[in-house]
Every structure is written in structure tokens, then in C-alpha cells.
Design goal:
3 helices, Metal-sulfur cluster assembly factor, FSCA_dom_sf, 98 residues, MIP18-like, Fe-S_Maturation_MIP18, 19% strand, three-stranded mixed beta sheet, alpha+beta
Length: 98
């Protein structure tokens, strides 16, 4: 069975193509739930108008499915609470000049 930490590590491969940073560093992963081999990831985008939502869902499924013990992956995109740069890691803030 994968752990939340395993899933989070896999999600570092999901890259925002515009910013060039991963979704974990950007603070766009809002939640990870693991129940047996079933994984649910809640994520957001930097803005509701961002067109990459379907691509992100596909990448989440692709990278998390590679983990041992994962039998299903589901993702949900949310906009509450709205994403702000405060959610970014210190490394991401530095890379983007915040």
C-alpha cells in the first residue's frame, strides 16, 4: 500500500508548463487520501481560467499509478480555497522571485 508521502513524491513529477515548477512546490496539491490501493488527490490551479486541468489530471493518474500497490487513482480539481502564492514552498517563492 502506498503512503501519502509516496504519492506526494510521485506528484513532484506533475509540472506546471507555464511556471516550470511542480505542483507540490507550487502548493497546488490540496489533499491526498490513500485507502488501501485507492488514491484520491485534490488539486487546484493558479487560476480558474487555466486550461491545463485535464492535462494535470492525466499526469496525476500517470505518475501515481506507477507506485507499487496503487489500484486506482482519482483526482478532483477545486478552487476553494483559492490558490495564492503564500501556498508555495520557500524554494518555489525564491525561484519565482516572491
Amino acid at each position: 500500500m502506498p503512503s501519502v508521502e509516496d504519492v506526494e513524491a510521485a506528484l513532484t513529477n506533475v509540472i506546471d508548463p507555464e511556471l516550470g515548477l511542480d505542483f507540490v512546490e507550487l502548493g497546488l496539491i490540496y489533499g491526498i487520501e490513500v485507502t488501501g490501493g485507492d488514491v484520491h488527490v485534490t488539486f487546484s490551479l493558479t487560476s480558474p481560467g487555466c486550461p491545463i486541468g485535464p492535462q494535470v489530471s492525466e499526469q496525476i493518474e500517470e505518475f501515481v499509478t506507477e507506485l507499487d500497490g496503487v489500484t486506482s487513482v482519482e483526482s478532483s480539481m477545486v478552487f476553494t480555497p483559492p490558490w495564492t502564492p503564500d501556498r508555495m514552498s520557500e524554494d518555489a517563492k525564491f525561484a519565482l522571485g516572491y
